[in-house]
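Field: COMPLEX_INPUT
Field: COMPONENT_COUNT = two
Field: RESIDUE_TOTAL = 331
Field: MODE = joint
Values follow.
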Amino acid sequence: MQKLFARRKKYKTLDDKALVELAADDKEAFGELYERYLTKMYNYVYYRTGNTHDAEDLTAKVFHRAMSHIAAYVDRGLPFQAWLYRIAHNLVANWHRDQGRRKIIALDDFVAHSLQSEAPDRWTEEQEEQKQLMEAVRRLPEDRQQLLLLKFIEQLSNAEIGEIMGRTEGAVKSLYHRTLLALREDLGRHEDIGAARRLSGKEG
Amino acid sequence: MDSHADAKAQDFVDDITAALQQGNSPDPLLDLSDGAREQVVDLVSLIQDLRDTLRPVEPSAEFAAHLKTQLLESEAGLVARLRKMPARLHVAAILALFAGFSLLLSRRLFGASAAQDISEEPVATAL
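Field: COMPLEX_OUTPUT
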């Protein structure tokens, strides 16, 4: 038992590369990688699926798949997390294909904790704004959604995002700019549609 | 927008995002900018909204613990443990497999010939 604790302690000090090499034969090494990346993978999947149930289901699949393929992992000079994100990305894409629809994210969970200290009327207003923004984010193409999640949730640099998405740093910067412009346009368009609907409702 | 102005706008948006993520005000950047300012100034509130909306969430402790247990006790773990076993156990397992396969093969061969013998025996029929 003491040996196990000593080994676990040692794993905490190892970098990802060393852990990946050990993880092919050693479950405890994989356990350490799991601890490091669980929250990242969960966040990514949660925002791409929009609910806790599917986020947990897909996160579990990410790690099961990673574990079953880790012996065949080839270090191509990219960070280990790029490989995990690639697995998560593929699983989420399959999930969307299976669903045959794009679910709108349930904001209840995270809006509640981000705005709970606000006054109730302000809270409702901001909740509605955030809901509209999330809906607009989820109307974006997959790669743009991924970029926003990596930038705002994981707070990764353009270089790190580029490694994960297989793009250059400059391409990421350019895609980010175009994403913001597209998002602004989409929000404006939906705002106009909403205003027109409200107006026609009043007249009717 | 020409490519130079485009690149400038991209840099500007990127710098503003970094400033907002670090909790700094984007105003000094807005003051310093020239032509790019008009093109991106209305994006600042959008970036702020994204920062406020896309916030990290935590998986439940129960889920995290359950999944870890599942992973560490999964079949792949069993395979890894088998691979670590001494060589003599591997040899014994191979011999056992070979013996089992031989037994199945012999039963199939001799069982088939015995069945053939039975089918060739004359069958008494009641008239």
